[in-house]
Design a protein that fits this description.
- The protein is built from 15 helices and 3 strands.
- It has about 375 residues and is mostly helical.
- The protein starts with 14 loop residues before the first helix and ends in an 8-residue tail after the last helix.
């Protein structure tokens, strides 16, 4: 049974932790500002949200890659088990649903978490694990039974009390907590309570993004820690367990803030790299003799969806299929895209420079 947040005794925010909080806050501020350089923020968010979905699901053991997810969304057969890519696709739906609800003014609440859990487990392997409902049976982490498990969460009859306390903490009851510390502590508490039969890890990581967005630290959901947690997963799990056993919140907070700073800096760098690629390719197209409007439109569509068929491009551009096909083939001749099917029909074009950047770090765990 976790004690309610905030921790007692209070956190010891020494000079080092205070400096980490400042550094992480500054990095988030720079990332938020980077969104302004993109002509269309949704261009970046489309792929970044999907990258987070892939990474968060990989931590849970899926073998789906970033490319697999985009291929799946194009309604083509992926090269991985269908359940894997479906699981990732459901995470995208849950994440986008969460941000939509926040934008509509819905607060972070038990109702919202259950709603997002329902989206997360809407299909695939978890669809039989009570989607959208708190568990009604005991679960555990590690081992074959509660008696030899690494962690045994609260029993079902105490679940609502624990989650109710967490909800109050998120809404600054009994005391106000700064946003970054709140996100760090709430994530651990959620994972410790483990309120659902499945999907706790993914939803717990999504909770971090929800808190940062709800409290206005980021205007757009551009900061996700799954890559950092994936790269340091043994440390991540060790910190969670140390809190449960010794109450070492400060060590976790230092780890979390390091992740926030590194992730925000990486996202800023990625945004800058993508913007440079888009700008350079756009200028290359403008310099062409007889550059057509449809050619520029095709490039714009590939910025939004970096894996695109001629037929999809035609529909999005509101032009004929021959016109879209000609534009995609010209982009291929210029080396901006690559046709990846090798067939005569149903050709699929990949914006390689874009995809290679977004795919960094998304190789499935071995």
């Amino acid at each position: 049974m976790p004690t309610p947040l905030p921790p007692a005794p209070s956190l010891e925010l020494d000079e080092r932790l205070q400096d980490q909080i400042k550094d992480a806050t500054l990095a988030i501020g720079r990332l938020d500002g980077m969104a302004d350089i993109m002509p269309d923020r949704q261009v970046f968010l489309y792929s970044y949200v999907r990258k987070e979905a892939v990474l968060s699901s990989q931590i849970e053991g899926t073998q789906s890659s970033f490319h697999d997810l985009l291929t799946h969304e194009m309604e083509l057969t992926p090269g991985v088990p269908v359940d894997d890519v479906t699981e990732v696709s459901c995470y995208v739906a849950a994440l986008e649903e969460g941000m939509k609800r926040l934008a509509e003014g819905m607060p972070i609440s038990l109702r919202l978490l259950c709603e997002l859990h329902g989206s997360l487990l809407a299909s695939g392997r978890g669809s039989t694990k009570q989607p959208g409902e708190f568990r009604r049976s005991q679960n555990w982490i590690g081992g074959t039974r509660p008696g030899n498990a690494r962690h045994v969460p609260p029993p079902p009859d105490m679940l609502l009390d624990c989650m109710g306390s967490l909800e109050k903490f998120i809404h600054d009851e009994p005391v106000r907590t700064s946003t970054l510390i709140k996100a760090a502590l709430a994530h651990v508490q959620f994972e410790t309570i483990h309120p659902f039969l499945d999907g706790n890890g993914r939803l717990g990581r999504l909770l971090i993004a929800l808190i940062l967005s709800a409290e206005g630290m980021l205007r757009q959901p551009m900061l996700y820690l799954s890559l950092f947690f994936k790269q340091h997963r043994s440390d991540y799990y060790a910190h969670l367990q140390n809190i449960r056993q010794t109450g070492d919140w400060e060590a976790w907070l230092s780890f979390f803030l390091t992740g926030v700073k590194e992730t925000a800096e990486d996202a800023s760098f990625t945004t800058r790299r993508l913007w440079n690629i888009f700008r350079e390719d756009h200028e290359k197209l403008l310099a062409l003799p007889g550059a057509t409007t449809s050619l520029l439109q095709a490039h714009e569509q590939l910025q939004r969806v970096p894996l695109l068929s001629a037929s999809k491009a035609a529909a999005k551009m509101n032009v004929s299929l021959p016109t879209a096909t000609k534009s995609m083939q010209r982009l291929q001749t210029l080396g901006i895209v690559r046709e990846i099917t090798g067939g005569k029909y149903g050709r699929l074009y990949a914006y390689d420079a874009y995809l290679s950047i977004l795919s960094e770090g998304t190789e499935p765990l071995q």
